Each structure stands twice: as C-alpha cells, then as structure tokens.
C-alpha cells in the first residue's frame, strides 16, 4: 500500500486536503487495506466502497479473467478484506454491497 500512501502524501502536501478513498470491487478492498494503516489515517477524510469482496487479490493478470467464467479465485496473493474493516475506524465508512459478500 506504499503506492497509495505516496499519492495521498503528495496530494496532502500540495493542497493540504484530506482525501476520501473510494473503490469498487478489488479497488474497494485495496482502499480498505490502505485506510486500515494507522500511519496515514490523518490524511484520509473517509472511505466509500462499492461491491467490497470478502477476499481481495493483490495482483491481476490477463489470465485471471478466466476466473469470471470458472468461478474460481485467481492464482494470486489474497487477503481477507473483512479482517481490515475494524481497523478503518474512526474514519467515516460507507459500504454498498449486494445481498452477500462474496468470499
């Protein structure tokens, strides 16, 4: 999550504004992971997620698109997104999901 931290640091230094982290699907999982880090929490104004998955891949390759057909998880490193949710506090957090979190 160092890439995210560097971008947020640059924006915060340049404009002095706090950043709202917004993500969809895998991006939602990554912003939750980034917001869970205590080092940069003061730079964030909140987190908004759409379609947050129960597990998030840390990489994606073209061959991983076949998983949409097979229903399998891609052969990539993954983390349990749900475990990071409590660490997002005390930031405001908005979550939009369907009927279930896919795991």
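-> sequence recovered:
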């Amino acid at each position: 999550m160092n890439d995210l931290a560097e971008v947020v640091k640059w924006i915060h230094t340049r404009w002095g504004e706090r950043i709202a982290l917004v993500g969809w699907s895998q991006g939602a999982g990554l912003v939750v992971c980034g917001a869970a880090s205590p080092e940069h929490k003061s730079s964030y104004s909140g987190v908004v997620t759409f379609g947050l998955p129960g597990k998030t891949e840390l990489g994606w390759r073209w061959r991983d698109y076949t998983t949409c057909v097979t229903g399998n998880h891609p052969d990539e490193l993954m983390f349990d997104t749900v475990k990071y949710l409590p660490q997002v506090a005390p930031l405001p957090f908005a979550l939009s999901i369907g009927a279930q979190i896919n795991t």
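The chain has one domain: 2-96.
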